[in-house]
Design goal:
The protein is mainly alpha-helical. The chain folds into two domains: about 50 residues; about 190 residues, Helix Hairpins (Orthogonal Bundle). The protein has ten helices and no strands. Helix 1 packs across helix 3.
Amino acid sequence: TGSEGVVLRACAMTNHPKYNRTESNMLRNDLMAFCEEELGKIEAKRTRKCNLTASAFSEWFDFVYITALTIGYGNTVPYSAVGKILTIVLSIPLIGMTGINLTYAGDLIVTLTKVLMVKFERSFYHRKSVKICAKKVCVVQFMLLLLVWILFAWCAYYVQRPRLAPIDAIYFVYVTLTTIGYGDYYFPVDMRVKHVALSITVTLLLMVAMATLASVITSIAEIVRSMKIGEELRASLRRSIKSGRKVAGETFSMNQPE
């Protein structure tokens, strides 16, 4: 992973002749001690055996749902050849099933939003016939997405404070929801074990937020489809092709000898 590469490069730098001649031997010794400690942790991860502890279960769960949602923080990765082969084989159907389920969940949220908006307008405005606009549905879903975003960011901030600032929590949620997953922020395994209920809540919020994001994208697609932009572009393209053929035909006929 990226952190291992940094540690290995730092270890190589401490053995460079330039650092042997420097006057800051204390800094060099501290860096070497840090590198030895981190390399020991990396080697322990690579050579450890499977164990049935709460930390291991939490790490497995973390690896599965991060892989299924294609976030890829990089904090939990397979080291052995068997683990890498199993990841390749199992991640393909897992990611496909997750994408299908999120699509269905997004459609379900769109339908529920429309039903609730109809009931709201009939109850408060006493309207017999209610026409739901796609733009209103998109606005309501976007507000729901912001609400879930705030709850998710608060949970992330509560679990990882004071390491995580409020703006970092908002950034972490954005990177997670968009499945960018840079890996600079993630939920450590020990914190998941310590806050089990909150970890389950965060996982459920992540699922709801991704489904809501999918529903917002679906609503935006419906709005674009209702504007008939594609049909207008195709009609304009047909007119351009016809006019171009007409001009080309007239030019060709003018150049023909009498």
